[in-house]
Amino acid sequence: MWARAVWLGLRARVGGRRGFTSEAAPLGSGRLTAEVLEHLERLALVDFGSQEAVARLEKAIAFADRLHAVETDGVEPMESVLEDRCLYLRSDNVVEGNCAEELLQNSHRVVEEYFVAPPGVNN
Fold first, then answer.
1. I need a surface site. Which of 14, 40, 100, 104 has the fewest CB within 10 A?
2. Is the pLDDT of residue 95 over 70?
3. Does pTM top 0.85 for this prediction?
4. How far apart are CA 90 and CA 95, in angstroms?
5. Strands, DSSP E only, in the chain?
6. Quick one: residue 20, left, alpha or beta (phi over 0 = left, psi -120 to 50 = alpha)?
């Protein structure tokens, strides 16, 4: 994939394995392997085809790693961030509707009254 090509290209430019990725990087070291980048590209449908994109990803990982330092012993997990408030249900009254045909006209392709989405990433 793109990550492999970028990794090889940037590795060659910076001289060997000292690039922005490392084949044997310990977890949380801030270094990404080409395999991890390829896997993330497939999962997230994001192209990490530039060194800037990889640097942004590494910054996000470094930020997430800092969250491990937060002391959470003895803290009960919450069911909701609003669990200390009374939440009221509103009535669900339909005020508009019955316009499926009109909405389907917005689609490029329709099959049997369903939108047809373009294909995603293979594999």
1. 100
2. yes
3. no
4. 14
5. 110-111, 114-115
6. alpha
**pLDDT value at residue 111:** 92
**Residue 100 pLDDT exceeds 60:** yes
Cα-based angle 18, 19, 25 (whole degrees, multiple of 5):
75
CA gap 63, 61 in Å, rounded: 5
Q: Running DSSP on this structure, what letter comes out for residue 21?
A: B
Residue type present at position 81: V
In angstroms, the CA 69 to CA 23 distance is 26
Q: What phi, psi does 111 have (nearest 5°)?
A: -130, 120
Which residue did the predictor score with more confidence, 28 or 80?
Answer: 80
Q: Identify the CA nearest to 58 among candidates 10, 13, 22, 9.
A: 22
The count of residues in the chain is: 123
